[in-house]
Amino acid sequence: MHYFSTSKKSAPVSFRKALFNGQPNDRGLYFPSQIPALPTNFVESLKEKSKAEIAFDVIKPYIGEEIDDSSLYQICAETVGIEFPLVKINDSISTLELFHGPTFAFKDIGARFMSLCLQYFSKDSAKKTIVIVATSGDTGGAVANGFYGLNSVEVVILYPKGRVSRLQELQITTLGNNVTAVEVDANFDECQAMAKNALADETLRKAANLTSANSINVARWLPQQFYYFFAYQELTEKQIPPVICVPSGNFGNVCAGILANRAGLPCKQFIAATNANDVIPQFLKSGEMKEKNAVPTLSNAMDIGKPSNFVRILEIFANNLPNLSEFLVSESISDERTIETIKRVYAESGYILDPHGAVGYCALEDYLKTVDAECGYFLETAHPAKFDVVSEILGVEIPAPNAANELLNKEANKIEMNADYSAYRKLLLSKAND
Length: 434
Ligand SMILES: *Cc1c(COP(=O)(O)O)cnc(C)c1O
Description:
Layout: E1 3-5, H1 15-21, E2 30-32, H2 51-63, H3 69-79, E3 86-88, E4 93-97, H4 107-122, E5 129-134, H5 138-147, E6 153-160, H6 166-173, E7 179-184, H7 188-199, H8 202-207, E8 209-212, H9 218-221, H10 226-234, E9 243-247, H11 252-263, E10 269-274, H12 279-286, H13 310-316, H14 321-327, E11 328-332, H15 335-349, H16 355-370, E12 376-380, H17 388-394, H18 402-407, E13 415-417, H19 421-432
Parallel strand pairs: 4-12, 5-6, 5-8, 6-7, 7-13, 9-10, 9-12, 10-11
Antiparallel strand pairs: 1-2, 3-4
Helix pairs in contact: 2-3, 3-4, 4-5, 5-6, 11-13, 15-16
This protein binds pyridoxal-5'-phosphate (PLP).
Pyridoxal-5'-phosphate binds next to helix 11.
């Protein structure tokens, strides 16, 4: 297996190289040279397999011999060692809860897998590896947690002052050890510009292995296939093949699901639910891609005007738009409907949705009304306690996971900085030579 760039200008690379590079320098995205077909009896045998075995079988063709089998199995086992419950909300709608990881969002799964692969590849390197992250919210905590405590890896996270939630900030600042939190008196774009400067800095590159851990990295994207198989293990006969609805921003999560389907996982229909940022729903209707600036919504992790992973979906469908629009439905849900859905689902079933999951629930419900499918499931991508707005909407206290409450008692540490590249560079050099 090798990975080519969707822009087709950069040379193909190994999995290891794709992991360290993050993005090809022609600004495309890495894509596997083939989509491996799972063995024909794989789906029937899912119920007998453990989660680690399933993860191993799904990912192995993408890694080839670059990681030995026993280490890869270990990496898989550590990645999927959390709960992935499929919870029934009512007779027609269930939810696959992906928020049982350390930072209560699905990004934990990809971040954990990537960090373990990175540790595997850097174990014989004399240089330190520095993971550079700029975050607007969920990514920072997931990456910090995934890389926490790894040998010879330093993580430096930039986040914009006053623009992340209290819980999100604590997830970044309370770890310590090899995780350094830098609060920048600037907006997210300026943080990202500092991170990009560092990645292109020759002196820094000589001093350390530099890598970024943003969500387009293949090592974060590919393991997101795992939980679609785990959900299949729990489906009842009536639910097979499933209608699957994915709350989407950058479209990495739904793209991983489509990849799983191409490898052999049965699915009846995919729905990509967006908030008011409706570039893809509009594209699938009109055939015209009009990128827009993101508008802020309640489901802020999906406030994206240029969904970067969509090129991978186009690649899977060889740019055949009619085939794609038949397979993938995409609907935009307003904040008003998001609020209405959170209230109604709570009143009817007691289930508390987070704003992202509510977008997914609403789009799935709409879809089921228009077709003769009876039921489906959506992904619940984050825990509702992560978003203060949910308790404001419902007027009740949202019980937070224990680990979230424990954060409040931990010591928080951060470095404060202006958007000043030289200060940031100095910090990175000191980490490289520590
Ligand atoms: C990142 C994120 C999403 C969007 O996922 P994509 O893969 O970018 O489409 C949805 N919900 C939550 C809670 C997220 O953090």
